[in-house]
Amino acid sequence: MKSLDMYALQMDRTRIGVLVGTGMGGLTAFSNGVESLVQKGYKKISPFFIPYSITNMGSALLAIDTGLMGPNYSISTACATANYCFYAAANHIRRGEADIMVAGGTEAAVMPTGVGGFIACRALSQRNEDPKKASRPWDKDRDGFVMGEGSGVLIMESLERAMKRGANIIAEYLGGAATCDAHHMTNPRSDGLGVSTCIAKSLEDAGVSPEEVNYVNAHATSTLAGDLAEVNAIKKVFKDTSEIKMNGTKSMIGHGLGAAGGLEAIATIKAINTGWLHPTINQDNIESNVTIDTVPNVKKQHEVNVAISNSFGFGGHNSVVVFAPFTP
Predict the structure, then answer these.
(1) Plot region of 271 (φ>0 → left; ψ -120 to 50 → alpha; else → beta)
(2) Distance from CA of residue 247 to its chain's centroid?
(3) How far is CA 144 from CA 25, 106, 159, 227, 286, in A?
(4) Which residues on neighbouring strands pair with residue 139, listed in sequence order?
(5) What span, in angstroms and rounded, lies between the C-alpha atoms of 322 and 320?
(6) Which candidate, 17, 180, 160, places its Cα nearest to that of 86?
(7) Half-sphere exposure of residue 212, counting CA atoms within 13 Å on the CB side?
(8) Bridge partners (DSSP) listed for residue 178
(9) 202 vs 209: CA distance, rounded Å
(10) d(CA 106, CA 233)
């Protein structure tokens, strides 16, 4: 961030914005505040309880540290959050409202309240005796996701501005989309309609045809319903999947919730840059109708033409972003 800070000093900082979202907000601060209230009374609640709990503070603190005064807010759409942020940030640039946006997602929910809450939802894997094999997207023996946390943030800039300053352009954002299943609080539509619509809209926004896409970084959380619904949606959009490779980053790092799309955008861009796809690990007994190459257990070389990265969240929120190699 230091380099961005130095660059900001030479630019109009009112045209550099921050859009970093989170699914859960400051869960530790919130839990500690409630505990203080119950055990010691309201006078013992930290003055940081509210500021560190609210979801917009990730963007706000980043702006305070760097002096960036452009559009600044957060989006919270559960596990679809980061892609919503990329999509919205790119549209600020497209509309001429900003030259640069710092965008992505962050989450730190690995704590008793966070883990306990997802246990209550029956969303987590119970493979506690072998945790390294607990996250296993598309495998017949999957039984839920594994909690992860972290942050994934991209610097998004207009092509004209980036080229003018001689920036090291690592990939091109082509487009994105957001839709809703309008179905259930936690379960996806089994027919994948909301997801397939979102993928189709993202390709339309990006100006590319389904035939041009040859890599999918899937949402693939390792849940019974979600994994297959996503595959159904992908097959609806991409009639011929023989050239497509699809992997699940969450098989190795767990589900970062609001940060997941940010982490997976970085994995997607690294695949574009290096020509290597990381494996989907723990692929021992793949579901029979998953006929797309999931890069099982061992990494593969693959020249990415156009890539999509999928993220879906509780509430039926769907988000897809499209990346490609940058060619001057």
Answers:
(1) alpha
(2) 14
(3) 23, 21, 41, 10, 15
(4) 286
(5) 7
(6) 17
(7) 16
(8) 319
(9) 10
(10) 27
Q: CB burial class (10 A; 0-12, 13-18, 19+) of residue 177?
A: buried
What value does the CA radius of gyration of the chain take, rounded to a whole number of Å? 20
Which distant-in-sequence residues (6+ apart) come within 8 Å of 294 by Cβ?
137, 138, 245, 246, 247, 248, 280, 283, 286
Residue type at 124 in one-letter notation: L
Contact (CB, 8 A) for 247 and 279: yes
Q: Which two tokens stand for residue 99?
A: 């030259």
Q: Cβ neighbours of residue 155 under 8 Å, at least 6 residues apart? A: 4, 100, 101, 102
Please report the DSSP string for 51-112 in residue order: HHHSTTHHHHHHHHHHT--SSEE----GGGHHHHHHHHHHHHHHTTS-SEEEEEEEE---SH
pLDDT digits (tens), the chain, 328 positions: 445 555 545 789 999 999 999 999 999 999 999 999 999 999 999 999 999 999 999 999 999 999 999 999 999 999 999 999 999 999 999 999 999 999 999 999 999 999 999 999 999 999 999 999 999 999 999 999 999 999 999 999 999 999 998 999 999 999 999 999 999 998 898 888 999 999 999 999 999 999 999 999 999 999 999 999 999 999 999 999 999 999 999 999 999 999 999 999 999 999 999 999 999 999 999 999 999 999 999 999 999 999 999 999 999 999 999 999 998 8
Catalytic residues: 79, 219, 255
Sequence length of the chain is 328
Q: Which residue has the tokens 């004209």?
A: 160
| Residues 6 or more apart in contact with residue 50 via CB below 8 angstroms | none
